């Protein structure tokens, strides 16, 4: 089978409840789709808008690795007031979903001479997970690092899989919880800041490429920190939502 871009209805073959407010939808691919880790697709549903049926489309990052040729995974939070996400959240296995893509310039650049540093918050982990899975599947020689921030332990997406990848010695996993009160979290706490980045990354700053994804405040703040640490702009790749 040859790889293709997509502009069609695809069937949902699996739904995974990742966290209390986050789901992954796995779509069956009839043919492999050619995409780079980090890209997104447009998802669409026919919805009743002011008494008229309209195809409502929104952008969602691909979570699966392009090494997986027979399916596509997309992970998303539910936004109760969103025009599309509540309807996506209500879909069942066997339902069809309009998919168009891939799109986007936030791409993983395979470079065996540099380490890959992934820095994300919340659902911003989604495109980074596509990259992390790709690195693990391809058995790239350089170990990757993830710094990931979420509000509470229950909000950690892909936690079990991340621990498994870490166990394989291919990922240095660093999760920080910003609202640990009332939980039994024993790990790192607080927002991603200059002290955390310096502590975790100082020895490898010069030989690394950076991939950032999350809310604008987090992404812009992290870019500023990296630039202050003399990381060149050509080594900082970003996506924000």
What key phrases describe this protein's structure?
241 residues; alpha/beta; Elongation Factor Tu (Ef-tu), domain 3; Rossmann fold; 2 domains; six-stranded antiparallel β-sheet; six-stranded parallel β-sheet; globular
Determine the structural class based on helices, strands and strand pairing: alpha/beta
Output the helix-strand order: EEEEEHEEHEHEEHEHE
Shape descriptor: globular
Q: Count the beta strands.
A: 12
Instruction: Supply the number of helical segments.
Output: 5
* Arithmetic mean of pLDDT: 94
Uncertain residue segments: none
> Approximately how much beta-strand content do the residues carry?
35-45%
What is the CATH first-level class name of the largest domain? Answer: Alpha Beta
Could you estimate the helical fraction of the residues in percent?
10-25%
Instruction: Output the CATH topology of the largest domain.
Output: Rossmann fold
Q: Describe the largest sheet.
A: 6 strands, antiparallel
Give the radius of gyration: 18 Å
Number of domains: 2
Strand line-up of the largest beta sheet: 4-3-6-1-2-5
CATH H-level homologous superfamily name of the largest domain? Nucleotide-binding domain of ferredoxin-NADP reductase (FNR) module
